Queue: 4 jobs
Job 1
Amino acid sequence: MSLIPENRHLLVNPIEEPISQNHDTVQLLMPDDFKPPQSLHVVCEVVSIAKDSKFYGEVVDRIVTERRMLQEIKIEGETYYLVLENYVFGRIT
């Protein structure tokens, strides 16, 4: 099964940057559920584009958007991420 975006949405895959660990620093004990702060912006790979979208990019382009604008949808065990075309800040070339 695959999700086809509609209403000017883009189906994307967020690309998370690995957290670098510098072993020369002091180690702190943190709670098991601690998550380091994330960037306000996220780079995503475009998987599919709604037919009515005015987004001029192509599938497999990388885009930058606000992390909070990603809509996470879980259907039948699959996770999809959608973003409205208005929330795309730009393409990475």
Job 2
Amino acid sequence: MIAVTQNSNIPSITTDQRREVDRAMMEGHGIALAKMMENAGRELAHLARSRCRGGNHKGKRVAVLAGTEGSGGGGLMCAGRLNNWGANVTVWLSSPTERLTYVPRHQLSSLDRQGVPIYRPAE
């Protein structure tokens, strides 16, 4: 069941519900977690571009806040796409790198190679 927050009409789900959706997509439909994160990051980047800065991110400053699990991976994928589109992206991690799961850690490595500034909390 999707819950609607009290002051918003935007649906939200709990962490356990999100994990169950991920499990169902992987086991029931054969969609890899990395692919789901890639799709989420791409759609988030398109949404950010369409709703912010008049659709033009070139040279604009963008901060991406990323967690440790799937949503963090989507956020990091989004950061990479916005960077490739010419935005001046900075990433802020909520947890030390060691707490990232495999896919977000892989994407973080890619962002490092692209020269995207990444702020990590103390280990």
Job 3
Amino acid sequence: MINLWRMKQFYDTYKNHPNLPALLREINWTNNLTILSRAKSIEEKEFYLQLCGKERYSSRELERQIDSGVFERIMIGNQKLPAMMREFGADVSNSFKDSYFFEFLNLPELHNE
């Protein structure tokens, strides 16, 4: 019964976005459910669908990426780019940065380098 409800929720969420079905088919059902339940906006869902398909994340790795706020950090980083760079699109804006995650260091939340 829960799977039926999830399938209906899945359909209702993505039915008005014709560019997403190809991305949805690339990843497994567990990752789809994780993105469906954890991502807030359709842009965030699309971001994690693309990232998960491209990087072939396991469900644990996807959870870690969502918990570490990759989407929010990249969106904040893109706002800091000059206007000329933003005109080229998302592919160019993220190609000059690497992301590093240091949660394994157990630093305090307000740590500053």
Job 4
Amino acid sequence: LDEAGVPSLASRSHRRHRPHVTFAIASSIPARTRKDLAGELRLLSLPALWLYTLGTFPTQENALFLGAVTDAEVLAVHSAVHDVLAGKVRDPWAYYLPGAWVPHCALAQDLDVAQLAAGFAAVHPIEPIRARIAAVGVTDTRTGETELLS
């Protein structure tokens, strides 16, 4: 993407961007809830992800992403995360709730239309990528600090 003149998340961030898939977003996740979530995650088998779709969301904040195949194992982990968070977090983002969530790994965001087209052309076609979940954490979007849960 950078070679095509499209600012990737890695190049735009003042901190090192790690490829990631977000299961939930909220304005606040209390410490007790993070502890409960860590306990639940220890009981789950975290699946491998198949990143297989190149896409964008139909919003004004144009983003380019690799979409993950949504299989039963991925949905089970997503549901378990939201079962723990339900009623315990402030301002959950509707786009990440069960039934609305599109599992994806963001490549670039806040692109203009020309950058979006150039980015799509630069990485298309893609080969499927099998990704292993190396860690699970809660990231403070203001500081970039991540508290690892597993």
